[in-house]
Each structure stands twice: as structure tokens, then as C-alpha cells.
Amino acid sequence: MSEGDSIGESVHGKPSMVYRFFTRLGQIYQSWLDKSTPYTAVRWIVTLGLSFLYMIRVYLLQGWYIVTYALGIYLLNLFIAFLSPKVDPSLMEDSDDGPSLPTKQNEEFRPFIRRLPEFKFWHSATKGILVAMTCTFFEAFNVPVFWPILVMYFIMMFCITMKRQIKHMIKYRYIPFTHGKRKYKGKEDVGKTFAS
């Protein structure tokens, strides 16, 4: 390798201007992502607003149905990963490696760990909507199709996929939404003390 061949370095060994610009841009982007982490409701409202704007744009332009279909399939895959446990119980039936989901009432509480965490689900969904919105500005992505067939195919795929996911949840007895460990109430304290 000669001088200046490594990524982001100029001939003199310093990072190039372009490399520094994109590094700084990535740092700013990550900073905004980190600041948005605790605001779950706001993040999802913004994403729903973007999807609403996308739907209005597609409706008004009367096109880009393939892009919309691809976005729908992508969001469905993200949603299934969001509902799935990180460790698939069907693969863990025979082996005792790693944590598994509790299947009996008296087993120790183990929180549901998702294959795709909520933040990554939101981030990927938002990026997908923005990419789809960008595609609507290019005529090359406006492939003429008979859109009712795509809608029916998507609905059929959604129903089959969700049915399979719900059967999996019933078979392995897990609910993808936990709100912490169940709290049991003890006997009520009546406030009487024993005097000796």
C-alpha cells in the first residue's frame, strides 16, 4: 500500500476534508438519535405522520404502487421481528443452552427479549418510509401495475404471517408485551403490635 491508500486519509496522512465532513455528519446524526431515545411516543407520532404524508403523496400522484408494496412487506417483516423472541423456543426445545421463556406459572420471571428492539424497529421503519418517499420523486420507480392485486396479495400475506406468529405465541406460551414482574400482595397489615 502506498501513502494515502487507507480509507479517509489524504496524501499527507491527515483525514481528508470529505472524510471529516461525513464523520462529523454521522456524529450529529447519532447524537440526535441518542437524544430521541427516551421519547418513544413522540418518535412514533413523527413516524406515523411521515407514513401519513407518504400515503397522501401516493394517493395524489396515483402511482408508485410497487414502492408502496415493497414498503408494506418491509414493515411487515420488521413487525414480525419485533413480535418474535430473540431466542426462538422452537429451536431451544431439545437443548438447555441459554435462557428460555417461562412456560409454567411457578417458573422464574424472565422478561420478553425481542429479536428486534423497539428503538431499532422505529429507526428502521422511519428510514424505510423516508426511502420510499424519496423513490416517489423518481419516475423510474413508477412501474405500472394493477394495484388491487397487490393490495389483495399483501392482505393475504399479512393474514397468513400473523396467523403463523399467533400460533407460535400460543404454542410456546409467550406474550410479546410484558410490563415487568407480577407483584403479589401479602396479607394486609392491620397495625396491631404485640406488647410484652
Q: Element order, helices and strands? A: HHHHH
Helix proportion range:
40-55%
Q: Count the strands? A: 0
Which spans have pLDDT < 50 for at least 5 consecutive residues? none
Please count the helical segments: 5
Rg, nearest Å: 25 Å
- Name the overall outline: extended
How much of the residues is beta strand, in percent?
under 5%
User: What do the pLDDT scores average to?
Assistant: 83
Structural class: mainly alpha
Q: Mind describing the biggest β-sheet? A: none
Spatial gap, N to C terminus: 89 Å
What do these coordinates show?
The protein is mostly helical. The protein has a domain at 50-91 and 112-172. Helix content is 53%, strand content 0%. It is built from five helices and no strands. The chain has helices spanning 17-36, 40-61, 65-83, 118-135, 147-171. α2 packs parallel to α4 (118-135) and α3 (65-83) packs antiparallel against α4 (118-135). The radius of gyration is 25 Å and the shape is extended. The termini are far apart. The model has no long low-confidence stretch (mean pLDDT 83). It holds the Pfam family Rer1. Belongs to the RER1 family.
